[in-house]
Known about the structure:
Elements: E1 9-10, E2 13-14, H1 16-21, H2 31-40, H3 55-66, H4 78-85, H5 90-99, H6 111-124, H7 137-144, H8 148-160, E3 164-167, E4 171-174, H9 195-202, H10 205-208, E5 217-218, H11 231-249, H12 259-271, E6 279-284, H13 286-297, E7 304-309, H14 313-321, E8 325-332, E9 335-336, H15 338-347, E10 352-355, H16 369-381, E11 386-389, H17 405-408, E12 415-420, E13 432-437, H18 438-452, H19 457-468, H20 471-497, E14 500-504, E15 510-515, H21 521-530, E16 533-534, E17 536-537, E18 550-554, H22 560-578
Parallel strand pairs: 5-16, 7-8, 7-10, 10-11, 11-12
Antiparallel strand pairs: 1-2, 3-4, 6-13, 8-9, 12-13, 14-15, 15-18, 17-18
Helix pairs in contact: 6-8, 7-8, 11-19, 13-14, 13-18, 20-22, 21-22
Amino acid sequence: MSRFKLLLVDSGVVLESFYLCKLNVCFNSYGQWHDWYTKTNQTFDQMAEPVDMPEEQKLIKCLIKSFGTLPQDRKITYGVDLLESFQTCKNVRKGIKAVFNDFKIIEGRPVYIQLKEYLKRMITNGHLLENQKLPSTRELSSLLSISRNTVLTAYADLEQEGLIYAVKGKGNFVSQVETFNAPSIQLNWKDKINEQTFLADELDLMKHGVRWNHDMISFNSIAPDEKLFDVENFKRAFLNRMAIEGNIVLNYGYAKGYKPLIKYLLHYMEIKGVDIRNKDILITNGFTEGLDLLLSSLNKKHGRIICENPTHHTALKLFRLHGFDIEGIEMDDDGIDVSKLESFLSKKEYDFAYLIPSYHNPTGIVTSSKKRKEIMELFSAYQLPIVEDGFNEELRYSGSHLAPLAAFSGIGNNVIYISSFSKILFPGLRVGWILADKDLIYYLESMKRARTIHTSTLDQAVLFQYLNDGCFEKYLKKAKSVYKKKYELAVHTCQQAIPFKRMTGDGGLHLFLELENNIDSRSLLEKCYQKGVVFLPGDVFYTDGCGKDTLRLGFSRLKEREITQGIKIIGDTLRIDFGG
Ligand SMILES: Cc1ncc(COP(=O)(O)O)c(C=O)c1O
């Protein structure tokens, strides 16, 4: 059957159904006309004229009359024929306008790009047809109240992309564009998802955790307070770095990372007391990618890891996704219970340990210097690697400096130190690093290249400039003084208002509470939610489903007033609803 099409505009709406139903002619709301035409294939003239024929119908009739019996080999399109035949007809102009009436200019984006994209969408989804004439540049510019140059540029770009073609003296026409060729099918993607991904979904706190509104007091997050961000100096660092080597940082970089940043971080780790002679650094997309890369690269000999219990939820998630069994060792107020750790190590074999010695998440506990030494001795004796998470260690408000485990290991090579700028600077940057033995970094580099090629060189370069300009130290000083105040306020208010069994948190951005009388923190959360306060139930951090009576309070993003108010609400709820 030959195809000819007539695009009509009804009450300002393009008749999409016309294209979708693929009928020869479709008069939306003029149903009987359509039926009549397609069934009998008679000319329009043969049809009795309705008495109350509206303007548009008169136009249609007029149009069809002018072509007699709609020639079979011809597409009658509104762009080509209506315009040529009825240039002066008010309704046709109204019609053109109607076709483009959903073109809305968005501020802050070049209009020619918006117009180009609009027309491209109309062509690719079949609203503008092959060989259909587009309005002249003059006409379209006047209809859309935009400059003619804008239309000219949009048309030129569309021509370059092969979506339209120009015929000298005649105008611009829609090219042949293959659309809607494939039969539309509906796959069931659930059938194609693997077990690992289902597990990732199941463990996704963002999706399945308690939803809260912005007018609530949320202790959920331990993200930094964005109000503290040093945007001005970061902007300056960006401009400076771009002026120095903008062309280089916008190209591909090295999988291992941006060299000046690696050099800076090696020096940074050396200052922390790490012997860097046999070490190297790989830059990653934050701590999380660093751990994932490591887990993808290490031999899963025993399929078992050992860590503090509770521990960082994301790390637990990754261990599970990589198929490790997890053994959690409980924590004293000065770090992991070393005698239990020893007892476990002596009974089963492990691939490595994962430890957060400073401002542990979720407990906020700092492992004492004595315990750090004991841990190192133990792992040396068992010849086991330690993955040290140093994400938060700069956020020390009081007490003496504690060197990371990586420093305790000296020239030894069993500590893999992973850290990031997420908590101590800007998490949006997604820049972290792995410091480890050179031989290990050599292999991790290849895994990094295989997975993501490299971390954004632009981000790394701007960060380097910011660090090198000395802005990091200044920012950290300011951030620490603000967080220290919030920390002290949170501790004080919890002591006053919450009847807890145990509270831990030596610094950092959160406190961890164990409730009295085994009160279930999820039931408490339900009650607090109704009063506009949310927090993270502690069980999500446990390796063994324990911790039902615990909760984590992240205070970093809250105002002081909110910290006091929120903690008081939790305390009152405990007393009123749980007899705490
Ligand atoms: C224990 C721990 N390690 C590391 C991180 C940082 O992860 P990332 O650098 O991927 O943002 C966090 C963030 O919350 C954390 O709690």
